[in-house]
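COURSE: Structural Biology Practicum
ASSIGNMENT: Worksheet 4, Part C
STUDENT ID: 0417
INSTRUCTIONS: Below are two proteins. For each, the amino acid sequence is given first, followed by its structure token string. Answer the questions at the end about the second protein only.

PROTEIN I
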Amino acid sequence: MQDHGAKKRGILLRAKNGDVIGFDETGLRMNLSDSVIEDIQKRLPALGGHVAVDPAVLGDVDAWNLRQDGKWFVFGAHLPGAQGPRQFRRRVQVSDDASAPDIIADTAGAVYGLLSFGGTRRAVTANEPLSFPYHVVTTGDDLGPAGASGTQANEATDVIQRLTEQTRDSLIANEILRRRLADHRALPLIYTRSETDSSASIIALSEGAAFDNFRQTVQNLCDAARSLGKPAKVLSVGLDFTLEDVTSRGPDWIAGMHRVMHQIIDLFADNGLRKPLFTAIFDAGTADISDSPVLRAQWDFAWNKGDHDHVFAAPGYMFAQDAFGRATPDARLQMAEMESCAIEARNSDAPWACPVLLLAERENDPKVIRCRGEGMGAFVLDKDDPLNAGEACGFLFEGDENGAKIIDVRVDSKDRNDLLITCDKPPKGADLTLCYALGHPASDDGMPANRGALRDGFKLQSATGQTLYRWALPAALPVH
């Protein structure tokens, strides 16, 4: 009688150094050589398998559970930054003589782009600390987040690098991540890059080195995302080109900006990206430049964007400047805080708009001018006047031939977005224009010459210690 309980084992092939092929009740058993095991380990990553790796390959890093996944090392680690212990990744060394690739955050979902395009002031960088150094990255071409400012051509690469310096785009990314962390939301990988050149007109900018480099940057972003097995999505494209344009008339600048936006939309479509959100700070000039055709032309964008998704996050007169007319370090952070609010709102289909003035017309009383506007909330004339706009709240008349002085500005009690501006005598003139935060005399207090006291009810406590408000955009309105 057969003993069904007996174990079945045997040897089919034996070598001098031991059994090679055997069998038991579960099937065949093979003992593989060290060289075969090494070959399997090499092949598994390319096939999408995971292979355990000694964390020592990362250097002296507090890391654990390191494994190789294709072209990447993936691991848990406790690294510097506000993100806390979480999962990271690093590209496998390409060659023995190459420098070690950068560690970046291993995140869920898409790789988000925060890009910008414009003139030299957008290329300003600083050595400010980043709260999320592994989540905010840039193109892996050693040019940094500000690129080469149009002095050389970008190269194609899917490599991702961490930042060696900060731009306004990286500050915006940092602020978005800070808010997400506070709300226990997912922390994405944000790819930042600014492409600029020294063009002197908007037409030259649209046809110059900056746009050629921007085209390559978009392709590099998409390739970098694909290298991670993720899609690419762009949170915003910052447009920053106003005072750098020293030749264009106002209408030419407006047409040029629309042309740039159309070019970017077409470029995104070619790379399978959605139509982007365009953001900007409404340039209010400097301490000694308070008026120009281009500064005035921005007002058209505030209410007539065509088919573009464009938003002014804040007016420039609320931000301090240095002696060269550039935003101070605190002001750069405040700009980023306001822009991040606009970007987060608009990308979640929530509204964001600064108060904008649309029409100035005479009342029955010839000494009173009604100024009509629109905003997300009721207009507020700030009694504390933190920007030192004066009793006229930032308003003045251009082309007045009667020497009228503004003696009172108030919000109409019957319409929350109408202002009543009272003068000591009727303002008169064939080209009478009511200006807000535009055309003011030069200043020496570290702020732009233009200023105002009109805002809505929004406020934000800045990391700089100041309270930020959503101030009204500058305007020049013919009086009807």
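PROTEIN II
(use this one for the questions)
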Amino acid sequence: MAKKKKRTQLSSEGKTELAKAIAEKSQTFAKTYANVEIRLSRVFRWISGWVDKLLFNQKHGKIVALMVAVLFYFGMSSDNSGLFENMKSAETLGEYKVSAVVSNQAYEVTGLDEMVKVRIIGDISDIKSVKQQKNFRVVANLTDLTEGTHEVKYTTEGAPSRVEVVLEPSNGIVTIKKKSIRSFTLGYDFVNRSNMDSIYDLGEPELEQGEVHVRASAETLDSIAYVKALIDVKKNYTSDFTTEATIAAYDDKGNKMDVDIIPDKMNAHVKVSKPNKRVSLSIVPNGVIPANKAIESYKLNHDKVTVYAKQSVLDQIEVLPITIPASTLTSNRDFPMPIVPPNGVTKISESVVNISVKLADKKERVMNKVPIKIENGMDGFTFALANGTQQNASVTISGAKKVIDKVKIEDLHVYVDVSKIDKAGTYEQPLIVEGKNKLATYAVKNATVTIAVKEK
């Protein structure tokens, strides 16, 4: 049987000593803890002061903010790397042209939308990639379709499979027709003609060939009104030139047509000329000169001017009339007047002429036995003055004495205009009188005559 350990009994003095020792150790520990607490408090106050200087100082605040942002970024990248990968965006790319995938030489396609709106959904990086790609396009695949009308779905090419592309509209109704070829006579037009100086005239161009072949559906070919070679003269040619002309087809309303033209370009040789003519100027009073006056004479600072026009127009011009307002001529005076180009004239060497007018009293003179002529009769009829009608007229000439004294009978033109008579019969028609000298006025005493019309 084990022997029990005997407990040691302390005396009252021992207990007193032990209590003193414990009290001394407690005081030592309390002092040590207080010293540590004071030192830690000093360290925290020092750190807090430096943090305040960094955070609330304008010089260091931006640096601290950047460091915090960098720490935040790396923290988010490491802990939440999948958060942004799953975020998607949507953006409208705008309108794209629809391209038909079909043999353009064999088939004509109508009804296809020209443009469709494209909207793309996906990662921001993928959307940016699509926007930068040059090979992205919208297509209508018609390769498996035959002639007729079909509904076709629009698709895209060049976009990553990770993105979703939404098209508006997403499909279209197209008509496919087989093409045929037809020949057309070739005309021509000058483009940018206003860029050339108007004194130059362009001759009829010499084209490489007189006709072209047009390829389209039979219905489209039937709607072609004309085909022209478009000759661009924007280079302001001043001499003969050869240039490449573009060939285009048009309908009867002048709308350009989308067809295949063979060839679609050809050389054109054009002659450039500068036809002109020196022409005299004359004045023509319009209205009545006051106070029973008439123009006795006048002078111009330009007796003649150079007129530029096609030769056929120049051949018809002998004198350029300058119309002046007669009611303003109350005395001898000098004044400027514009020179108005007649139809077909492209340019005149002078645009304004200065006129000096001298007035005199108005006088009258009667000239008898002026022959009456019948003009502008229709084919298939004979026109003659009726029996008993005078064959001649008496003409009263009014103007300054120096002017009317110079008028000769051959300067007068008295006639009947029968251009509106288209049936046989007897007609009362007015006499018309004209004179070469425009400074005088002319009138016939018998204002009408009788015309007999018979069928041939």
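ANSWER KEY EXCERPT:
Q1: Residues 118 and 167 are 5 Å apart (CA to CA).
Q2: The two ends are 179 Å apart (CA to CA).
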